[in-house]
Fold:
Amino acid sequence: MTARIRSEITFWRVIVAVIFVTGLYATYIRFFEGFRASTNLTDQMPWGLWVGLGTLCGIGLSAAGFGISAAVYLLGMERYRPILRASILISFLGYCTVMVGYLYEIGLPWRFWHPVVMWNERSVLFDVCVCIMTYFTVLTFEFAPAVIEKLPWKGLRETILRYHHKILIGVVLAGVLLSSMHQSFLGGLFLIAAGKVHPLWYSSNMHAIFYMSAIPAGLALTVMAVYLSMRSLNVRVDFTILSDCGRMIQMLLIVFLFFRLLDLTGNHALHYAFQRTSEAGYFWLEVVMFMLIPIALLSFDKVRNNPDGLYWTCAIVVAGFIVNRLNVSINALQTAMGTHYVPKWTELASSVLVIAAAVMAFRYAVIYLDILPKAKPQLPARWMSNNGLAAQA
Amino acid sequence: MPKQKAMLIDIKRCIGCASCEAACKQLHGFNADPEPTLSDTAFTVIESRGDKFVRKVCMHCNDPACASACPVGAIKKTALGPVVYDAGKCIGCRYCMIACPYQVPRYQWSKLAPFVKKCDLCSERVKAGGQPACTEACPVLASIFGDRDELIADAWNRIRTDSSYVPRIYGTTEGGGGSVLFVSDVEFEKLGFRPLPTGNQPVPTLTAAAMGDSPKVVIMGGTILSALYWITQRRREVALAEAEERLTINRINQERS
Structure:
């Protein structure tokens, strides 16, 4: 009995337990003791890790949902249909984490509904709120069939899916426009902070830069998730689909790199990259991790066609993307605001908790719903009861 | 339409006695200890720059960045001049603090139900025909309150009659101007007045262009995507029809043979 219990305690389960315990404790501190106890935020740094990682990265990394649904539904790239549902699920869960994170971020979380009824059309943040709310509805709609088809009542199931199918294209189209809008508006949030955002990141094209960087990062996260599902959840997807995603990520990153360089030279800001400042360091970290290394690695067939190689390259893309968003939201502001911000452990622990919950939800959805094509379950016949070894011999 | 009010702060006259700070704290019932910078319990402070004293206070912009940024419209510019905050609407997103080019709004970080705090130019007193506590308390008339037009005329008068003044009234046009005006006998740049990123344009113009483009982008994007969808659908139909045709021909050929 004890041996059985001991075998249940695996490395990753311990990690998950630690994440949940610390995260829940951090959550308690946030909601019952306030910002002073749970964050290192100050009047000079009013937005920190929760906005930088939770919102900016959470939305950005959820960009694959609209990208792949546009490719499959609107552009007829049927090739990517096997990973369509997975990408929509990732977006759905990503937006869930953002909405949970929103409750941590705002000072008066019980007023979360205020933007629904109190409007300020001039505010970029209001537009972001509205777009996120409506796009979350779209995502729920796009993801709903995965749950509905599991309903036990055949008639109801088929009626709903028939009507669902009729309006699907319109909803997908609206979803693509909505998410394009708020992916870019997240960058637009910082337009008004000219003079505070370091010139290496400030640009009147910030919204375009956010949009262009979100799509490759979201694709990279989808590739990672599909790869992990293949490795551990009995999922079988044609790997060349993922390789092609890798090629697409590379192309998008090359375009982004050029746009970023042109933008910097256009703003006469490129020389800041060669000064001995911490901003220049963060800038190069971002350029190397998010652009140069992945572009170089993905140009090798050996990396792109190797599952592990592609997985780790995509991991670098995602990490580089996170560096970019934290640069914009935290590092670019520090000098002008005259402050130095390091997040408190509670900020990190609660963010990790929310992310871990989303990862677990993804895992269980892949196991119990038809998200990704599964390998045929091997039915052990009597003569191959030792997992087919006898048959192979 | 009531006449817009304003506050004129004369840096040459200010003696740094901090009566304005004390009066402000007393009016709001805050702890009377002087504070080095603006905080959620100090809506105005005196900063010394060399031998000069510079009052830091909300500039009550005519087109405030904070008001344009607030997603729920909790911050408003009133006709009388004060930029006021509606605590009943605020959700605590703190975007106003990111947006304000003067870094004025402060947050009650230690409260469980925190609000944004900033000078409201004693809006209630002004509405009742009075003046803010700080101008009332100033013993040397370095801060005075009145109709904005008259104060600007007064300020130009001081600049004309006393050549030591810098010929500029800070706050008339900077960032679209506002209801707090400064005159000084030292260059404003040397006193910590940083030039605004928009010059004489209101700061919200920074986002207006990007947001104004969005309907165009949405309409264009929607049209292009619909067109692409139509093309892919059409191609699929054609491919299907061709396949059917081939099938029929094959069948006919088979029947013949």
Summary: Residues 64 and 204 of chain B are 7 Å apart (CA to CA).
